[in-house]
Amino acid sequence: MTDMELLLERYELSVGRIREIADRQESADKYKEYFKRTAEFAMLAVQAYEKAGEGFFAQAGGSTIDELRAVNRALYADILGGNYSTSYANPEYACRQLGAGFGRLLSFLYAELRSMISFAFERDLENIVIRLELFLEIYSAFEYAYSEGAEPRESDIQESMYWFVSDYSEPAMFRRVEAQVNPEHDFAVKIICESDLSDIRYLYAYGEYISPEIEKMAVYLNTLPQERIQLIADTYTEGYRIGFVKGNKDLSKKETVDIRYVLGFERIVKAAIANFEKMGLKPVIYRANDTIFHTKGAAKTGFYGAIANKQYDYDHKDDIALFLNKRLVNRKLEVQRLAYEANKDMAAKYAGPAVIEVFGETPFAPVHKKEAASLSGEQQKLSAELRGASADITGEYIKGDERSFTIIAFPVPDIGDKFEEIFDETVRLNTLDYTTYERIQAVLISALDKADYVEIKGMNGNKTNLRVQLCRLNAPDKETKFENCVADVNIPVGEVFTSPVLEGTNGILHVSRVFLDELEYKNLELEFKDGKIAAYTCTNFEDDEENKKYIKANVLFNYDTLPMGEFAIGTNTTAYMTAKKYDIANRFPILIAEKTGPHFAVGDTCYSRSEEVRVYNEDGKEIVAKDNSVSILRKTEPSKAYFGCHTDITIPYDELGSIIAYDYDKNAYPIIENGRFVLEGTQELNKAFDA
User: Fold this and answer.
1) How many domains is the chain built from?
2) Nearest-CA neighbor of 354 among 254, 255, 240?
3) In angstroms, how far is CA 351 from the centroid of its own chain?
4) Which residues does 156 contact at the CB level (< 8 Å), separation at least 6?
5) Is residue 645 part of a domain?
6) What is the extent of the structural domain holding 583?
7) Is residue 570 part of a domain?
8) How many other C-beta atoms can be found within 10 angstroms of the C-beta atom of residue 148?
9) pLDDT number for residue 247
10) Are residues 50 and 119 in the same domain?
11) Helix, strand or coil for residue 669?
12) Is residue 172 part of a domain?
């Protein structure tokens, strides 16, 4: 019997048993009700797998868009809107029905079964079978105990799930690494390049949730002339190319580009693929993770559709807490290294990500549920250790000093009635003449290069009071502290940035309201001592301990502290006033928001893992402020040098009282006062405010 024949036999046996569970009569027994409803969902995924094999989701299959919508809606119905309140995918409901211990575990199982949707559409039979078998293993344990007039031990159920997570970590990691670096994994590329994109039925071939807004996005782009699409794609791909040029990195050594996007943007992606091919790059496009084997959370890496329920994603982001221990950390790191080693030649040819972000979705403020899995104090340390060590392994095979990236952002129809107008305005922002900004930013840098430190203070209720220490230049005629950032890797134009000196960087950073990775923070406040976060809080929740946990998990990524990796001054006042005009400041992605005021990144520096690459501004001066006292540890204690995160936090101009640079003789150089640029040679930036 071949491996495929054996797999098919396992599949048929599992499906037959699960069908029996799904078809039985309603039961008052709480566990039987859970297993019946979960089996019903599993059968939906199985049916999608079989329909995909029959060509139901392909345009040539002849299915109407209403038929496709009906199947898509059925797959996601249980977590949409009010349905989620009585779904076992909701840990709050599961715990209420099944008890706290089994509720968390069985809610996790349900969530893991939901990942079968993507495997069904990609025709990945093995990943479907192992989840069906896990479900049956857990079901059998309950059935046996029930026949004995008892319940299974919670520890036994948890152990079964633990070994599932441990045993299948290796194939899951191999699958993920191969998808990242091997262009032969072309599921999404085929959809983009082989479909008739004017027929939006193609959207339903992915298996992602397709909301009316996703359809509207694709329909809108289909109204644009090809010249407009090409302009957008050219801006996107040219930024990527220039990133290699400015970073003094050799693009000719690379063969693959990692394209990440949200469904609906396929016309732009298709044009970008053609541009990248002219650079000698093949696309690698993979799905954003939704399984226990990879990091979950609000931030998505890869392609994805509409988020069916952000609270559901938030509720399950820490499911790994059900299993995380030192042994599992070691297992994950071991298989990651094995996966990269097996793909090291292709990893060396990986050029880096090219990302299309979106903004305009309804702002999301998560509800913290005590029933959701959460990391213990010890697990937080293990999670941070795993994150850092994982980034180190990736850095060994995909070297930071040889790759680059680019990010561009566009609004989606959720932003409101003026979507088309805002989209056009965003295209204008993304294509602003960079020479004006480059000239003005050179004036800013000239003043900042004289500075020993910079003081930043808030106004209008903003409590920011920070002193940021800058490095000393040894050869001011040849060196500079700040990079003059125009429209290359971070589109649009508009910032100057540096890696601050940690020692001497002290004070409070405060923002009244900010969205980071789609999560809202109210009155976010970070206190820095010698450049490292010493205290933090916000006002999202009534309980301050919950506020601290929220920040530690989602800003500090479970580290006890993080350094200030970047200090920057955003100069794109046009973008700022666009936000004001359309009242969308709270919907801007950080990519644009960081250009609309000073911002501070916590975590790694902007030059993480590429510190030795020599980088110059257009005036020929070399940027020397690339390290701090943490990142320099890469030379002596590499495991302590990096954190695998970099989160920008921006103070908007209307909360910005002043930015003043002080030279070594304490002479003051005011840069911004009362939210306006006052440094001679930069006042042109105020025209956008006046307009």
Assistant:
1) 3
2) 240
3) 19
4) 141
5) yes
6) 432-690
7) yes
8) 9
9) 86
10) yes
11) strand
12) no
Those residues of the chain that have pLDDT short of 50 are: none
* pLDDT tens digits along 556-568: 999 999 999 999 9
Find out whether 622 and 616 touch, Cβ atoms under 8 Å: yes
CA proximity to 616, closest of 480, 445, 448:
480
| Residues ≥6 apart with Cβ < 8 Å to 582 | 415, 416, 418, 421, 422, 425
Q: Are 356 and 265 in contact (CB under 8 A)?
A: yes
Tokens of 90: 């909701």
H, E, C per residue of 249-305: CCHHHCCEEEEECECCCHHHHHHHHHHHHHCCCEEECCECCCCCCCCCCCCCCCEEC
- CA dist., res. 6 & res. 12, Å (int): 10
Residue 498: CB partners within 8 Å, gap ≥ 6?
448, 470, 471, 481, 482, 483, 566, 567, 568, 625
Q: Do 312 and 382 have their domain in common?
A: yes
In a domain, 304, yes or no: yes
Say what the alpha-carbon torsion angle 621, 626, 629, 632 is, to the nearest 10 degrees.
-110
* pTM for this prediction: 0.92
Domain identity same for 160 and 16: yes
List beta partners, residue 467. Answer: 455, 506
Return the pLDDT at 304: 96
Instruction: Please state, in angstroms and rounded to a whole number, the distance separating the CA atoms of residues 537 and 146.
Output: 47
Which among 143, 167, 191 is the end of a domain?
A: 167
Tell me, what amino acid is at 341? Answer: E
Query: Of 19, 391, 57, 38, whose CA–CA distance to 200 is shortest?
Result: 57
Q: What is the DSSP string of 577-645?
A: HHHHHHT-GGGS-HHHHTTSSEEEEEES-TTTT-TTS--B-TTSPEE-----TTGGGGGT-GGGT--S-
User: Is there a contact between 208 and 305 (Cβ–Cβ < 8 Å)?
Assistant: yes
In the chain, helix, strand, coil percent, each to 5? Answer: 50, 20, 35
Contact 551, 536 (CB under 8 A): yes
Same domain, 367 and 288: yes
pLDDT of residue 298: 61
Whether residues 216 and 334 share a domain: the answer is: yes
Q: Which of 138, 167, 196 is the last residue of a domain?
A: 167
pLDDT for res 487: 63
| Two tokens, residue 128 | 């479907």
Taking the C-alpha atoms of residue 452 and residue 471, their distance in angstroms, rounded to an integer, is: 7
Q: Is 526 helix (H, G, I), strand (E, B) or coil?
A: strand
The strand order across the sheet containing 406-411 reads: 282-284, 256-260, 350-359, 406-411
Sign of the four-CA dihedral 435, 439, 440, 446: positive
Angle of the 326-342 helix axis to the 169-181 helix axis, nearest 10: 40
Question: Is 551:521 a contact under the CB 8 Å cutoff?
Answer: yes
Helix (H, G, I), strand (E, B) or coil at 220: helix
Cis peptide upstream of residue 492 (ω within 30 degrees of 0): yes
Q: Which residue has the tokens 């060396």?
A: 348
Nearest to 653 by CA among 579, 601, 603, 567: 579
Question: CA-CA distances (angstroms) from residue 583 to 366, 381, 427, 528, 578?
Answer: 22, 40, 18, 31, 8
Q: Which two tokens stand for residue 107?
A: 């809610």
The distance between the two most distant Cα atoms of the chain, rounded to a whole number of Å, is: 84
DSSP per residue over 34-49, as a string? HHHHHHHHHHHHHHHH
Q: Which residues contact 363 (CB under 8 A, 6 or more apart)?
A: 515, 520, 586, 587
| Same domain (yes/no): 481, 592 | yes
Same domain, 160 and 182: no
Tokens 């119905």, residue? 77
Pairing of strands 656-663, 406-411: unpaired
Which backbone phi and psi does 198 adopt, to 5 degrees? Answer: -75, -15
Same domain, 129 and 188: no
